[in-house]
Amino acid sequence: MPRGPAALAAAALFLAFVSPLCALTVALFSARGLHHLVLVLVAAPALALAFPLRLPFARIGGFLGLSLFLWLWHLPAAYTLAWNSHAAYWLMQAGLLGSGFAFWSSVFRVERPAERVASVGLVLALAGQMGLIGAILTFSPRLLYLQHLGATEAYGLGALADQQLAGLIMWVPGMLPLALIGARLLRRGWREASAA
């Protein structure tokens, strides 16, 4: 077990579920967005490096599962369900982390150039989805998550501005880890092709 990735995964899970960030997600939707980025772009890849899954169909299954949970978390009705039900909340969190773990395990475990190209394509597809969700949140003229109405003012933000900030967090800083991972995969593929 690689110690670095395992320690990073533990730190990310601590940040997401034990640190003040977790409590802050009740007040700020932008904190919820950051919380999800920590799960999907730090904890899940680190877990995949430390404890790689070797499941059939993990690449496409992980991608589809992660896509499903990303969109579910951002549908107002599903968000309300998770807000009102502890079971739904933890199911959504487990789904996001578990599908992310499967996705990143398959992305990092590539053996042939064609698999590497497919993995880079899926990372780009994930980036596209996250960018689209971020843009929807940033440019929506109305508040989509009424649960945060009245809770954001203590932090100097209106609820709509908080939602827009969440979109920007997902759209801009959220793309950086994806770009780094995609570039690293492409670099490794380039080296392998040059050596062949």
UniProtKB/TrEMBL annotation:
Membrane topology annotation = Multi-pass membrane protein
Q: Where is this gene product found?
A: Cell membrane
The membrane-spanning stretches of this chain are 33-53, 60-81, 87-108, 120-145, 165-186
The UniProt entry, under InterPro entries, shows: Caa3_assmbl_CtaG-rel
Tell me which GO cellular component terms the UniProt record holds.
plasma membrane
Source organism per entry reads Ancylobacter polymorphus
Q: Report the principal subcellular site.
A: membrane
What would be one Pfam family of this protein? Caa3_CtaG
According to UniProt, the name of this protein is Cytochrome c oxidase assembly protein
Keyword Transmembrane helix, does the record have it?
Answer: yes
Give UniProt keywords alphabetically.
Cell membrane, Membrane, Transmembrane, Transmembrane helix
Q: Which branch of life, at top level?
A: Bacteria
